[in-house]
Amino acid sequence: MLTEEIKTSFLEVLEEGVKPATGCTEPVAVAYAAAICSKYLGSSKIASINIRVSANVMKNALAVIVPGTGEAGVKVAAAAGAIGGDAEAGLKVISNLKENVLREILELAKSDNVSAEVVPVEDKLYVEVTIMSREDTVTVKIAGGHTHVYWIQKNEEVIFEKEKPLSDEESKHTNFLKSCRFTEIWEFATCQDLESICSLKRAKDLNMALVKEGLEHDYGMKIGKTLLGERQLQLLSLEEKIVVCTAAASDARMGGAQRPAMTNSGSGNQGITATVPVCVFAQHREISDEKLIRALTLSHLTALYIHAFLPLLSAYCATDSAAMGAAAALIYLESEDEIKAEMAIKNMIGDAVGMICDGAGFSCAIKVVSSVSSMYRAVRLAQAGIVIPATNGIVSENVDDCIRDLGRYVSEGMQTSDPVILDIMMNKN
């Protein structure tokens, strides 16, 4: 039986870790910092913008489209935030860009007045934006979270300051999750008072709207739309429907749609992967709203639990770990068998966990396809009672040990991959 303290902590984790955001969250963090700069500059004309970011932020901003602009990169993100952003909107800072400022945004972004560089910091997520006008200079610094501002300076005056998070500092929510077990997450999701978790239904509303957007318009590489072809969605097999819909939502997300995604662990693609397969399965099987809400809670909380053992940003594509949450949710929807949910997660950990993150971009939709395909396969095997033996590879007998070992593999084993990936990305012939 879960204590009230544990239940409250799970609710806080969900509130903090499952949030709406418009656009890929790394360039959006740059836009957010720029919007705050502009807020303190007032109506003064922008003379220059300097952007300094960590390697992981640059990696995730090189190729992804900034919503409403049709262009990619931290320079475009900063210009969009500075000219058309809402400093009070958090991760939805550029969700309402007006067409009449688009030309100004792109002209500024492509001018010599905007510069960007990677800074040698230990932080996985670091953003520093300085905007100068003729009269004033404002600098905003972010670290430890996409909207975690710890420094605002105007000219020589520090307007706002709090202690910068240590590069390896973990939040109280992360520390709490690391002390949990999967069985506690299962119990919470399946037994918690429905009213307290009904907000998870918004994940369905936002991310399924992205599915519709991706299937009706040409975003990114049109992975979902192409896989659907001339067929009707309702005539696809369940697996095909899950793949097509999840890919389409990612297409729209990475292709610059001005619709928010419900994120997970600070990532829109992780949020999509933890949401869309669950909603498609529930619709296909005509599952009740109550059971869908519980399944979404299980999926998102499991994804957050697994991500607690991973770096905030890394060389590992965490749509795969988000899909492990979806795997648990599909088992719940079909058979309500906790043991088989654990088997499905173990099957995924023994399958394709080495998929790299080589930055946010159109290709994320293909990685999403790989993750949900692995998920569906793992679920089918688990439902048949088949699980990878604990004698094989990094799979252990206990699912919580598996999850911790996955975190160790990513944190230690893939640590040297990021610099190589970024070097390849930035120095192509």
UniProtKB/TrEMBL annotation:
Keyword annotations: Lyase
Keyword Phosphoprotein tagged: no
Source superkingdom: Bacteria
Family: Belongs to the UPF0597 family.
Residue ranges annotated for the Serine dehydratase-like alpha subunit domain, each copy included: 192-422
One Pfam family named in its UniProt record: SDH_alpha
PANTHER family noted in UniProt: UPF0597 PROTEIN YHAM
Keyword Lyase: yes
Protein's name according to its UniProt entry: UPF0597 protein AALM99_10405
GO terms of molecular function: L-serine ammonia-lyase activity
Classification of source organism: Bacteria, Bacillati, Bacillota, Bacilli, Lactobacillales
